[in-house]
Amino acid sequence: MPSYTAPLRDMKFVLTELAGLDEVARLPDCGEVTPELLDTVLDAAGKFAADVLAPLNQTGDQQGAKFNDGAVTTPKGFKDAYRRFVADGWNALSLPPEFGGQGLPQVVSAPVQEMWQSANMSYALCSLLTQGAVHAVLLTGSDALKKRFLPKMVSGEWTGTMNLSEPQAGSDLAAVRCRAVREGDHYRLTGQKIFITYGEHDWTENIVHMVLARTPDAPAGVKGISMFVVPKVLVNADGTLGKRNDVQCASIEHKLGIHASPTAVMSYGEHGGAAGYLIGEENHGLEYMFVMMNMARFAVGVQGLGIAERAWQQARDYAKERVQSADIGVRGGPPVTIIHHPDVRRMLMSMRARVEAMRAVAYVTAAYLDRAVRLADAKERARAQEFVDLMIPVVKGWCTENAVEIASLGVQVHGGMGYIEETGAAQHYRDARISTIYEGTTGIQAKDLLGRKIARDKGLAVKALIAEMRMLDTELAKAGGEDLKAIRTRLAAGINALEESVNWLVANYVASVRAAAAGAVPFLMLLGSVAGGWQMARAALIAQQRLAKGGAEADFYKAKIGTARFYADYELTKTPALKESIIAGAAGVLALSENQF
User: Fold this and answer.
1) 439 noted as active-site residue
2) What is the fold of 158-283?
3) What are the distances in angstroms from CA 188 to CA 178, 191, 268?
4) In the chain, what are the domain boundaries?
5) Coil, strand, or helix at residue 157?
6) What 3 state SS string does 13-37 have?
7) Which of 163, 252, 241, 271 is nearest to 209 (CA)?
8) CB neighbours of 320 closer than 8 A, spacing ≥ 6?
9) Where are the strands (E) in 402-484, listed by range?
């Protein structure tokens, strides 16, 4: 059975050297975030991921979730693993202390989330959705709602879901038809929701659903959507459970991957209406959802990172064990392990370099999430939020698109054995595929990035980021060395491609919005690639400085420089081509009429 080992050394390097853990520790209510605490949390999480969750990944995929007359049974071992997960306090890691959470910053939570996703993506989806539901109630829920639902959701005694999509309303939430009619201090909901992750399961006695619906007099379109808390089991005033609510699981989906995770069709109000409680005000559900969605999209980006790491580890281990063919250039030589073959090396380096770049971008964004919430100065909080808003669609879209490619490379490294389910490589590929769709497809992330984050402010936020990236050039020039020289040259070309693309998009967005939109996904990938290259260059510079001082871990730091060099040579060299697609690619995208397809 494929194993998993948390990449603790690289995680800690990124957190301390790139994400600025020491700066986060100086934020309000973060004084306990010391290197010692980080070691304790990450070491314990790594052990739980490796010993408890990872062994269930392949068996869970094989057994799958089972549906029987409204009830869902998860694979053997999953329920017990969840009980241990909750008992050890993992569900409450980053959630508010006033409701029983530990209140740790996102920059500490992000690597832990990566471990859960690497070890067992199907399992980890439940706590991911619960955290999203908790944030929804925290955002604008009344004090009564918070008191009634949050303590047991934070502890993990109850789980949560997000109910957005309907058969006719996938990405277009303006088409939501689920109906909510006021009745005293609550509402009665009727309708159907689809694609509800862990909408029904056997882990907890209650599931708290966040449901988008319309009131009878709501305006048409997105302005008429409200958000409601709809529990599976009603909760009495004293906090005890009451009778079953009018909520049923109608079926679960048969999917390409994540077989152990039940994806439910939920039916509300078949017997008179499900009792639900309004969050915030009527007709503001979509704006609440978008604030909540920022965290969900970041979490899915980390999910992509996690599954990519797992695929990389398995491919690396297989390449070190699989003996096949003589080494190139050695006539009549003995067969060697395939990691000796240059093309296998190329694939492994591509996987490794992209995973490390993804981790750096994600963790740095997590640190800015903490700054945007916790900084004392309002202007500094706003600047941090600008970075977050810019990078969230990149973390989500770029990381997950890379995850699919990395998992595919993992199959390729295995050769024919990768196509056989027993090795586990195919599962990572199947599981990764949903991540580019969850919480808005890559196209939706790119549209958000282009319209809301680039065109709206005339590119000011991204130009500020570009200016920060350029500040690294002087340090790289001073450092010297052939590797850093090559990295500097490639990074400069990438930044230039990014800047030219931004200028073109800002200049043409209003007059040629369809042409700009045709290049939206290439632009997202360009920004992600350059941001990754920026962080890899920072890592290489720090590694060279550590090597100059001597001491331990020389191999680790040399590998950092070599991996950054590969990223520059193989990933940053693609950025000028992406620029050309952004600026000149619309002609081909829009060339054919509908009838010509």
Assistant:
1) yes
2) Butyryl-CoA Dehydrogenase, subunit A; domain 2 (2.40.110)
3) 11, 10, 9
4) 8-153, 158-283, 458-589
5) coil
6) HHHHHHCCHHHHHCCCCCCCCCHHH
7) 163
8) 337, 339
9) none
Asked whether this chain's domains 8-153 and 158-283 adopt the same fold, the reply is: no
Query: Which of the listed CATH numbers 1.10.10.60, 3.90.950.10, 1.10.3490.10, 1.10.540.10 matches domain 8-153?
Result: 1.10.540.10
Number of Cβ within a 10 Å radius of residue 321: 10
User: Helices 285-321 and 121-140, interaxial angle, to 10°?
Assistant: 160
Q: What's the CA gap between 114 and 156, in Å, rounded?
A: 19
| Interatomic CA distance for residues 345 and 359, integer angstroms | 21
Which secondary structure element, helix H or strand E, spans residue 274, and what is its range?
strand 274-279
Contact 28, 88 (CB under 8 A): no
> Which of these is catalytic: 309, 356, 439, 499?
439
Buried b (16+ CB within 10 A) or exposed e, 255-276: bebbbbbbbbbbbbbeeebbbb
d(CA 115, CA 5): 9
d(CA 367, CA 518): 32
Predicted confidence (pLDDT) at residue 1 exceeds the cutoff of 70: no
Is pTM beyond 0.85? Reply is yes
* pLDDT tens-place string over residues 158-210: 999 999 999 998 888 878 999 999 999 999 999 999 999 999 999 999 999 99
